[in-house]
Design goal:
GO terms for molecular function: transmembrane transporter activity. Its main location: membrane. This protein has 402 residues and is α+β, with helices and mostly antiparallel strands. The strands form 3 sheets. Strands 4-5-10-7-9-8 form a 6-stranded mixed beta barrel. A 4-stranded antiparallel sheet has the order 3-12-1-13. A hairpin with a 2-residue loop joins strand 4 and strand 5.
């Protein structure tokens, strides 16, 4: 019986090809939009998760709480205190620095551009490896000797010097009111896909790594600790211990210290992205309702056109239930076919976009299955009234219908 109903449904759809295509259009657009938006949202979430993994999920920043009003100089960290923290948690800490940074003009001959400088320790590459293409990375001698050496990326070198291989070249910059010559000892290449490059934009500014000891000079006080935990360490427990230890160093309560972890940031971004995807996907799903109304409208027309057919079937012994199932099957197939086409279009568009941008797209099979199933449900739901109208038709009146 089911196979017979499906055959009749496909026959009816083939007879009215253009009308059937236009009827399915709302479902096609709705399903395609939902799958595209959900997949784009999942892809963005995966991309941000990968970005956080690249910068390190085991890192955290520790400082006196921003809500503390009576901040004193002893609330700031010193290099000695940083060493104490490093020694106290030597088994858990993979890397630690002063989270120091600065911005200033970098001047080479007639070229002058804004540069941002990040202060790092010599072993920063252990937690944030880079692809060195020229020269070397900062070493322990650079840090301890407070040497004015820098490592920059190829784009920054090209902007300032006009060439990528800038090893050995010097430029002038001003930090904390003192102007000095800095020497490039290494150049690395940033690995970015097309989407990341597009998101970052074409900035005219440059960036470079310098010894963090240059950015704590001359009084060696700094506001924040930047800590990476070793892999396998329980992050919540570890950072709570570091928070308590830093509070003790400054004669503060642990609640006075602010700890900002990469995991918390990632979860917050993921939550925002997930909420936006659901909200926009919900708006796109409205088109499914519009498509369902279109199916109801066409099925009502179909019932009217086939009134005599319904009368003949009932006169030959077809039950009310049989007629109703026939029209429900037709509306469900109409909607499911639209859903399948929408899935193909949605997945195809997302995959093509991901290929063009050099991104790994995320398309969840569960979303595809739910979308197709939901489209069939929409067809059945909006086909109930037309099917019920057809099933309740009086066979005598139906046979008299012209």
């Amino acid at each position: 019986m089911l196979i017979e109903n499906m055959q009749m449904a496909f026959f009816a759809i083939r007879i009215n090809k253009m009308r059937s295509i236009l009827t399915m259009l709302g479902i096609i657009i709705g399903i395609g939009s939902v799958i595209s938006i959900v997949s784009i949202g999942d892809t963005m979430r995966a991309m941000f998760a990968d970005l956080y993994k690249n910068v390190g999920l085991t890192q955290a920043y520790i400082s006196i709480g921003y809500w503390i009003e009576d901040t004193r100089q002893r609330d700031y960290f010193t290099l000695d205190e940083m060493e104490q923290v490093k020694e106290a948690f030597s088994d858990e800490i993979a890397y630690i620095d002063s989270s120091a940074s600065a911005s200033s003009k970098a001047v080479y001959k007639r070229t002058s551009i804004d540069f941002s400088y990040q202060g790092i320790d010599w072993n920063y590459q252990d937690v944030q490896p880079v692809n060195m293409v020229y020269g070397r990375y900062l070493n322990e001698g650079d840090i301890l000797g407070r040497k004015k050496n820098v490592v920059m990326d190829t784009d920054s070198a090209r902007k300032l010097f006009g060439v990528e291989d800038a090893v050995g070249r010097t430029f002038r910059t001003t930090l904390y009111g003192t102007t000095d010559d800095f020497t490039v000892v290494g150049v690395y290449r940033k690995e970015l896909n097309a989407f990341q490059a597009m998101m970052m934009g074409q900035s005219e500014n440059g960036s470079a790594f310098i010894p963090y000891t240059l950015l704590t000079w001359p009084n060696d006080y700094f506001y924040m600790l930047h800590v990476y935990a070793r892999e396998g360490v329980s992050l919540d427990a570890f950072f709570s211990q570091v928070q308590a230890y830093c509070a003790k160093l400054h004669s503060r309560n642990p609640q006075d210290m602010y700890v900002q972890t990469a995991v918390e940031e990632m979860n917050m971004v993921d939550s925002i992205m997930g909420g936006l995807a659901v909200a926009v996907g919900g708006i796109a799903a409205i088109s499914l309702v519009v498509g369902g109304i279109g199916i109801m409208n066409i099925m009502l027309v179909s019932v009217t056109e086939r009134t005599r057919e319904i009368g003949i079937r009932k006169a030959l012994g077809a039950r009310t239930r049989d007629v109703m199932i026939q029209f429900l099957t037709e509306s469900a197939i109409l909607s499911a076919c639209g859903g399948l086409i929408g899935v193909i279009l949605g997945v195809g568009l997302v995959a093509a976009g991901g290929t063009a941008l050099g991104m790994r797209v995320v398309i969840r099979p569960a979303v595809v299955l739910i979308a197709v199933g939901f489209s069939a449900v929409v067809g059945i739901f909006f086909g109930l009234y037309p099917a019920s109208k057809a099933a309740k038709a009086d066979p005598i009146d139906a046979l008299r219908y012209e």
